[in-house]
Give the backbone structure.
Amino acid sequence: MVKTTTNSIEFTDKGIIISRMKTRSGFKKVYVIEQANSINHEFHGVKKPLLLDLTRIEKSSLEEVMSLLSEETIGISSAIGILINSSFQKLVLNTYLNFKTKSNCPVQAFVNNNEAQSWLERYVAA
């Protein structure tokens, strides 16, 4: 496990990186970059599927969640799952992502941890 200022980062046996945000400060650009650099250092630039667990954050705006999808985060990820608490927010976020994200890194929001990890397993390099 790696701890950053705002996140704890763990690596599953299935090859998925799980980043659990501990505080709202994690939405700030400096901490998003810190997280990406920590993951990049750990895996020496090899892209891995990333699960951003925001379930400890009571409320987050669409703008805050989108701030996590920085160039640095996408650059270290083969796919990104965003785990949130609200089914409504999941619907809004996934609709927004379908229209706004045009990268080679698939992104999807989830409210169920098992579903998120199952989806991310498809993006683990063989």
